[in-house]
Design goal:
The chain has helices at 10-22, 41-46, 66-74, 84-114, 122-143, 156-165, 179-189, and strands spanning 2-5, 27-30, 54-56, 62-64. By secondary structure, the chain is α+β, with helices and mostly antiparallel strands. Helix 1 links the parallel strand 1 and strand 2. The radius of gyration is 17 Å and the shape is globular. This is Glutathione S-transferase family protein.
Amino acid sequence: MKIYGDRQSGNSYKLLLLTSFLEIPYEWQDIDIKKGETKTDSFLKMNPNGKIPILILDDGRILSESNAILNFLAEGSDLIPKDHFEKAKVLQWQFFEQYSHEPYIAVARFIRHYLGIPEERRAEYESKQEGGHKALRVMETQLTKNKFLVGDYITTADISLFAYTHVAHEGGFDLSSYPKVLEWIKRIESLDRFKPMNSI
């Protein structure tokens, strides 16, 4: 199978981390979003939404949206709970990641780390800080109860949230105010077959 992604993208990194944890073989195809490679006709035929990552299976079927791909690849593994309620909690955290976390932390990271906060985007960057800290506070509260987001073992929910949280400082977020989040980051980084970002 092939994974199309950008090495700098947290959404792409989710899949890198999962395939490493589960030792799933794949072929990586670089897509540079800053060069507009997700807007080409050939890419849009694969994903009309023009976003990465996408997964192309051996039989040619295509799946997009990082968390959908994550759960598809992890199905049947210990990263997906067998209990229906706990499985729903994984989805709850993944929806949280896409609607309450990524739009603030990932976007602030992009504006600050890759664009250098151009003046025309400064107000947008500053507006992302409050939402990002709110998301981190929600995570901090949950991680005072459990080692991981759904319980005492890692799930795809943790992989989804880890991708952009562990580089949140690149978006101007000081994680020292969130000790449980920092412990959780170290806990994931200490797991067997952990693979850091940009190590494709």
